From TrEMBL, chain B:
This is UPF0276 protein HBO43_16815. InterPro entries: MbnB/TglH/ChrH (IPR007801), Xyl_isomerase-like_sf (IPR036237). Belongs to the UPF0276 family. It comes from Pseudomonas veronii. SUPFAM superfamilies: Xylose isomerase-like. Pfam families: MbnB_TglH_ChrH.
């Protein structure tokens, strides 16, 4: 093994001995100084996760969160210097993290928080003014063949728990006694201007928006939405997308871009 | 022999770079305050990796602030001291960022942060031998030819030494600067931290550096711990005000170099902007004493 290979391996494993070939000029045990590097690595990555997942942290407390994040850091250290992207698999890890099983919605709250970070840093795109979208919708005769391009920051989440309600309850100080997390809820996350917004939506809306995001035309997306939920309200869902400036482009299917 | 385009340009210390004033690390919690109050600051510095994102508030605010202030771009992820080849994708992202913001300076560390597939998010130490020297020089050459500009290399803070080292840290740095033409980002806090940790005299250390190449200075605070012998172990955590000993060392450096662009770094326990501004003003007072 190379010199740095030893060093790198010992950084991640807390039980591994201090690598050979190191010394302190005052004769102190090199392990007591190697520990600084190990703490820095673990501490900085755990802090990065704590910053990106503030509600997940609040739900389990600082001590539990840091211990859980520490296990994640060892299992899935970052593969890129872009720390804003670190933690894409954290929610999946939480899902399988046995000690957190008593908070079954924890992984979905982490998923929501990850979508918020992604939306915050997502590409900029000019959205269509609500008035312009309405005008175009009124002039088209074959609405079903329309393609709606959505803002790059936009994403959805389908949860068995009231994930948006849980998240929202932790945005303000005060009592959250009335919160009932035990019902299904979808989430829509998007950035409008500089602000990331979170909306509670139903499973039909999740299916509709996901279909649009995958390039389906309007009638196909509607069919998917109704398959997911017979109570899907197209008018309400479109109104949300239009009013939140989530649509960046409208086009007809036969129109081929050059 | 390979021709390197940057060699046709003057060395880092001679390029019109940052103003000879105090600057501050730009924290996202201070974006709006900076734009609202337009503080009298020489420049701002940002970590390059934080801005390697597609869009959103970071680019929005940095664009507005860059329009009003000189900028220093400080990399923390290139792993110049690493055993692996430099990450070309990362270097390309850096080139894009430099193209976009046209910073007055780009700097990186004499350290490694990536090994194999893992990024450790820390600045890790290397052994100072001839093999490492050649490798670091190749990496610095590659950075400068890709970015088509000289870079500044920052001296590290370290907690341990390698038995394999055959060169002094100051000689190692001096040789990199001589061979590659890069500039020196002299982190005075790192000098103090390392010298206390390794029982060296900070003044002797500073005097052994190629001070003619200093194009930027960093000042920061440290945390204090103890090692297995119960002796002082200083940790470079950028989480406290600048220590008096570091201010004194700064004064010593300025007496040798004359005024140099000086950054106040604070990355942890970030205080109110006014607190950082006061430290920058303190640095400005030191700088003005050195002016003719």
């Amino acid at each position: 093994m190379s010199l740095l290979e030893d060093f790198a391996a010992a950084l991640l494993a807390p039980d591994q001995a201090c690598p050979a070939g190191l010394f302190s000029s005052n004769g102190a045990d090199p392990a007591s100084r190697f520990a600084v590097y190990r703490n820095n690595v673990h501490g900085s990555l755990i802090n990065a996760l704590a910053t990106a997942y503030p509600v997940t942290l609040q739900l389990v407390g600082d001590e539990f969160f840091r211990a859980m994040a520490g296990c994640y850091v060892q299992a899935c250290p970052p593969g890129s210097p872009l720390i804003s992207e670190y933690g894409a698999t954290f929610s999946g890890f939480i899902q399988g993290f046995e000690p957190a099983a008593s908070v079954p919605y924890l992984a979905d709250v982490a998923r929501l928080e990850h979508l918020r970070v992604r939306a915050y840093h997502a590409a900029d795109a000019l959205a269509l003014e609500p008035q312009a979208v309405l005008q175009q919708l009124q002039t088209h005769t074959e609405l079903g063949t329309l393609h709606l391009q959505l803002h790059p920051s936009l994403a959805t989440l389908d949860s068995r728990y009231a994930v948006v309600a849980v998240w929202a309850a932790h945005q303000t100080e005060g009592a959250i006694a009335t919160l009932n997390p035990w019902h299904a809820q979808g989430a829509l996350v998007l950035r409008r201007g500089l602000e990331v917004k979170v909306f509670a939506i139903d499973s039909g809306s999740v299916a509709f928006i996901d279909s649009l995001n995958q390039g389906a035309r309007l009638e196909k997306a509607l069919a998917h939405a109704l398959e997911a939920s017979a109570e899907f309200d197209l008018h309400q869902c479109l109104a949300l997308l239009i009013n939140q400036a989530a649509i960046t482009h409208l086009s007809l299917e036969h129109k081929v871009s050059p | 022999m390979m021709t390197l385009s940057f060699l046709q340009t003057p060395s880092a210390a001679q390029v019109p770079g940052l103003p000879l004033r105090a600057g501050l690390g730009l924290k996202n919690e201070h974006f709006t305050e900076v734009l609202d109050t337009c503080p009298d600051i020489g420049f701002f510095e940002v970590h390059a990796e934080n801005y390697m994102v597609a869009g959103g508030p970071f680019h929005h605010y940095l664009g507005l602030i860059r329009a009003q202030y000189p900028l220093s771009l400080h990399g923390v992820g290139l792993s110049i001291g690493g055993e692996n080849p430099l990450n070309r994708e990362h270097l390309a992202r850096l080139a894009t960022l430099i193209e976009r913001y046209q910073p007055q300076a780009f700097s990186e560390h004499l350290a490694w942060s990536t090994h194999g597939p893992v990024f450790f998010n820390d600045l890790l130490p290397l052994a100072y031998d001839v093999a490492a020297l050649n490798r670091v020089c190749e990496h610095v050459d590659q950075v400068q030819s890709t970015l088509k500009r000289p870079m500044l290399l920052e001296n590290p803070s370290t907690y341990l030494q390698f038995q394999r080292s055959t060169l002094d840290e100051t000689d190692f740095i001096g040789e990199i600067i001589r061979r590659t033409g890069c500039g020196l980002l002299l982190d005075v806090n790192n000098v103090y931290v390392s010298c206390i940790n390794h029982q060296r005299d900070p003044l002797t250390y500073i005097d052994a550096l190629p001070l003619h190449a200093v194009a930027e200075i960093h000042l920061a605070g440290f945390a204090e711990d103890t090692d297995s012998l119960g002796e002082r172990l200083l940790i470079d955590d950028h989480g406290a005000p600048i220590d008096n000993a570091v201010w004194q060392l700064y004064e010593h450096v300025l007496a040798r170099t004359g005024p140099v662009a000086t950054l106040i770094e604070r990355d942890n326990q970030v205080p109110a902007f006014s607190v950082l501004l006061a430290e920058a003003q303190q640095a400005e007072r030191h700088l003005s004493r050195g002016r003719p």
